UniProtKB/TrEMBL annotation:
<protein>
    <recommendedName>
        <fullName>UPF0434 protein QWJ38_17305</fullName>
    </recommendedName>
</protein>
<comment type="similarity">
    <text>Belongs to the UPF0434 family.</text>
</comment>
<dbReference type="Pfam" id="PF03966">
    <property type="entry name" value="Trm112p"/>
</dbReference>
<dbReference type="InterPro" id="IPR005651">
    <property type="entry name" value="Trm112-like"/>
</dbReference>
């Protein structure tokens, strides 16, 4: 994902910063994490899907970075 695009994107809920991460068991898949809301937004075909109903919840204490 382009770093310039990542710098412009914010969480659609809290407007906070996002962290770009590869999914551990499938390195081709990526997601954008909002630590404040504990949501992971999928990136499909290089396009971030920034819809709340498409995001999954995550627990930062149990999921490795």
């Amino acid at each position: 994902m382009d770093n310039r695009l990542l710098e412009m994107l914010v969480c659609p809920i809290c407007k906070g910063p996002l962290e770009h991460r590869r999914i551990a068991n499938d390195p081709k898949q990526r997601e954008l994490l909002c630590h404040a809301d504990r949501l992971a937004f999928p990136v499909r075909d290089g396009i971030p899907v920034m819809l709340e109903h498409e995001a999954r919840t995550f627990d930062p204490e149990t999921e490795a970075p």
